[in-house]
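Inverse folding, one chain.
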């Protein structure tokens, strides 16, 4: 027996003992895997409460009823709307036509007057004196003309004398007419029917011819002025009706009486005017108004 044989006989085979901790981990992992697979499969085997409720239809929302109808085109009226301002039909100053002291004042501020009604009178002493002189001069010229005609008829007076007498008579008649008009001008009268807005006269005050002594306004009918944009100009025409609502609450129906043909250089809009019947005169001038005018129809679905 050799040494090599002896050493082979002395070698001890290797042995491995199992690790209890490693085995335990393997079992835990397996248990977790089984639990996950069981949880995933439970959704197919045991349906959830929501699924069961939906399946039975016990507490679902109620069905909604839907109405259906056929849509047909209907005519729709188109309107033009704008803001405007109420203006008096006439508004003018009252001026004296003669010079003199104020003798009497017959109306007060705020009074309604008629056309030609006397507002005040100036002193007439000088005018009446001029009228008397003109009347006497006319009488003298008339006598001279009558004498010239009589002398011509007898062949004593010439045609030149008659012509001179006729010219003197015509001049005297013109002077009398001027004196009568001068006397009439001492009365300050209303140029038209309206309301006295201002009156600045005092009795005894001296005024010169052409002086402003008051202001008269006529609100019947009332005019509403508005500006029309250039893109809407073709929609507005004379004679067109319009509904006008004033800021004071009154509502009236008017008629377009004027549409401008030249645009404002600043706004590029056109002036239009609407006449509103206003017999009672209750709506004041200068207030705001809302205008609404029909301009045509179109078909529309609702």
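Residues assigned per position:
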């Amino acid at each position: 027996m050799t040494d090599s044989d002896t050493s082979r006989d002395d070698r001890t085979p290797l042995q491995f003992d199992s690790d209890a901790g490693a085995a335990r981990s393997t079992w835990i992992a397996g248990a977790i895997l089984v639990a996950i697979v069981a949880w995933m499969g439970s959704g197919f085997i045991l349906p959830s409460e929501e699924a069961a409720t939906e399946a039975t239809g016990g507490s679902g929302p109620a069905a909604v009823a839907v109405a259906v109808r056929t849509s047909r085109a209907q005519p729709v009226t188109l309107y033009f709307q704008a803001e405007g301002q109420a203006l008096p039909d006439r508004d003018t100053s009252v001026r004296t036509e003669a010079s003199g002291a104020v003798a009497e004042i017959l109306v007060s501020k705020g009074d309604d007057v008629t056309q030609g009604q006397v507002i005040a009178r100036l002193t007439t002493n000088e005018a009446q004196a001029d009228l008397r002189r003109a009347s006497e001069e006319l009488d003298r010229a008339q006598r001279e003309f009558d004498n010239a005609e009589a002398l011509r008829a007898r062949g004593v007076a010439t045609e030149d004398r008659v012509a001179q007498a006729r010219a003197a008579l015509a001049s005297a008649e013109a002077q009398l007419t001027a004196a009568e008009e001068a006397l009439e001008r001492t009365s300050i009268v209303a140029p038209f029917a309206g309301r006295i807005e201002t009156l600045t006269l005092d009795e005894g005050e001296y005024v010169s011819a052409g002086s402003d002594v008051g202001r008269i306004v006529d609100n019947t009918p009332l005019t509403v002025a508005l500006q029309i944009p250039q893109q809407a100009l073709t929609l507005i025409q004379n004679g067109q009706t319009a509904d006008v609502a004033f800021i004071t609450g009154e509502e009236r129906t008017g008629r377009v009486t004027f549409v401008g043909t030249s645009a404002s250089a600043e706004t590029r809009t056109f002036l239009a005017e609407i006449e509103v019947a206003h017999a009672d005169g209750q709506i004041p001038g200068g207030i705001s108004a809302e205008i609404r005018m029909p301009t045509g129809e179109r078909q529309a679905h609702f």
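DSSP finds five helices and twelve strands in the chain. The two ends are 121 Å apart (CA to CA).
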